[in-house]
Specification:
The protein has 304 residues and is an alpha+beta fold. It is 31% helix and 26% strand. A hairpin with a 2-residue loop joins strand 11 and strand 12.
């Protein structure tokens, strides 16, 4: 049995009870969570983690929610938000970013220091923590390809996983019970010409994101990622394969494949989580039928 008063005394950040999760997701879908905790710093997060872990109470870590799909029935457990984890520090060619840092901001701050090498990931819209959890990527590159270390909270203690300890073959470096706190990324020093080229790429990606956000008030992040081996064979993206199947704009219930990006699903105002999953499954099956590519879901499912 959870003591709300004990939790409030323990954690310095705000604690909400029976909080609707839809406003915390990009797609604006999802029922309520029993608790929503917003710790103020890493130590506050550790206390919240220890509280729920010690009681065996289910919980998950919430970033910006762009790649999150919450069941309409909600989540019978606690949600710990990481919005406060937003520090970026640069030391030589290493850029350290907290889990709550927006990936585009990581790339922007790195570029300001004439550092680059991760420009292939400019279209990722979530947080560093979320991207590391899923080992997100685009165009055959994954975020773990650039990682020197990942800081995690494991069994209540901070642990640093060096690159040699990270799982091979593109797998995520942490288990479900771990909390990602941040990571160090090794960048390369950019020449003036390279910096200008990288700046143009990031500017173009920013315009696309801004345009998409203006048109899409509620949408997922990337629904699928294409397996690395399939990328080698096809040299394309999940969105291009879905578009080639004629699924751009396809609708099911209150959800539709985005006209702007076929690897994004839009909530047209009345979509359910079931609509989103069913539409995603239709696209996945069609891509597999036509191209023999088994797309991998890049959304985190909560409450299923």
């Amino acid at each position: 049995m959870i003591s709300t008063q004990e939790l409030i005394r323990l954690v310095r950040g705000p604690v909400a009870v029976a909080e609707p999760l839809a406003p915390y997701t990009g797609i604006r879908i999802g029922g309520t969570a029993d608790f929503l905790v917003k710790p103020k710093d890493r130590s506050d997060l550790a206390r919240a983690f220890g509280f729920f872990k010690g009681l065996g109470f289910p919980f998950f870590i919430l970033g910006r929610g762009n790649s999150l799909l919450v069941s309409d029935k909600g989540f019978r457990g606690a949600v710990i938000a990481t919005h406060f984890l937003d520090r970026i520090a640069i030391d030589g060619d290493i850029v350290e970013a907290d889990a709550g840092v927006h990936v585009p901001m990581l790339l922007e701050r790195s570029l300001q220091a004439s550092l680059g090498g991760m420009e292939q990931l400019e279209s990722l819209t979530g947080t560093v923590g979320g991207a590391l959890r899923r080992n997100a990527g685009i165009a055959g590159r994954r975020i773990l390809d650039h990682v020197e270390w990942v800081d995690i909270l494991r069994n209540g203690r901070v642990k640093r996983l060096k690159n040699r300890e990270l799982s091979a073959a593109g797998q995520a470096p942490v288990v479900d019970a771990d909390v990602i706190l941040g990571a160090g990324f090794r960048m390369k020093k950019l020449s003036a010409k390279e910096k200008q080229s990288a700046k143009k790429a990031l500017e173009a990606a920013r315009i696309v994101r801004a345009s998409g956000q203006a048109r899409l008030s509620a949408a997922t992040g990337r629904v699928f990622r294409i397996p690395r081996e399939a990328m080698d064979d096809h040299g394309t993206s999940a969105g291009k394969l879905i578009e080639a199947c004629g699924f751009r704009g396809k609708r099911l219930g209150g959800a539709s494949i985005s006209e702007a990006d076929a690897n994004t699903i839009v909530n047209d105002g009345c979509a359910t989580s079931g609509d989103v999953l069913e539409l995603a499954d239709l696209a996945r099956k069609e891509v597999h039928s036509r191209f023999g590519v088994a797309l991998e879901l890049d959304l985190t499912l909560v409450g299923y």
